[in-house]
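[agent] plan:
  1. take the single chain provided in the ticket
  2. run structure prediction with default settings
  3. attach structure tokens to the ticket
  4. add a short note for the reviewer (M.T.)
[agent] executing step 1
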Amino acid sequence: MSNADDRFAPPERLVRALGSEPADEAAREWLASLPERVRDVAERWELTPERVHQPGGRSSVVVLVHRADGTGAVLKLEKPGGDVALEQAALAHWNGLGAVRVLRAEPEAGALLLERLRPGVSLRSLAEQKAVLEATATLQRLWVRPAEDHPFTTVADHTARLADALRKRSEEPWAADVRAVVDEALELRAALTADSGEAPSLLHGDYQQGKVLAGDRAPWLAVGPRPLVGERAYDLAWLALDRVDTLMASPGAAAIVRRRVAKLADALDVDNDRLRGWVLFRAAEAGVRELASGGRARGELLLEFAGLL
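[agent] step 2 finished; step 3 output follows
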């Protein structure tokens, strides 16, 4: 492999993330071939690569590039089995309103060319109060009606799969201490998906402060959606878990947790009880998943957060 290829080797964060999953020959081959894939797409799309963005994500590699006309852009290559087509469809539907624009796409190759934002400057660089204000303003722009023939999974179907996995993990001996929280999370999820009481919106699906980057066309734009269709409270729930480590270390964490949920519900006009339910479910599901994969510290933190609700 050439030195030029070595410059586009996968970031350590991506290697660790894929390495923590069950053995997957396709993922290993993809990681090994990434430099060649970057070079191939760059040549076909007339791009001049600069560097791989660090630390990057856990399921894709992001390369800062220049187009033939000299403008900056971002080349994103997704791991095998990724949902590039769905990401492209969501970004195309938003058409730059609150989200990054797609300049070119080749879903079968897992490739997206996106407008250049400031990859190192997310809402997490702001003070908490200002970050939440900007995050809620941006999220509100994303909540639009989906197209009639949209390809997106519903919140009910997506969380049904999460709930099945959560239920199985909670039956393991190591999960005995968290079963009460898990049981409540599963009951809440069943009640919440029975009837949302609102028209479904297109949702980001993985909305958090780190997924909102500074831009030139607009101050802040969302990236990296895992789009779903459903009620808005589900999309807002993950935002309530932002900076969870700092929050849980604060005196009076229980009151702060409940106040945060209430403020987010009020800011975006969603039902407080429904938001609380989705926050609890998402925290419990993510917490148990972390414990199952060896992420004990974060898993316990998320489950403690869920328990305070």
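[agent] step 4 note for reviewer: The domain at 3-115 is CATH 3.30.200.20 (Phosphorylase Kinase; domain 1).
[agent] ticket updated
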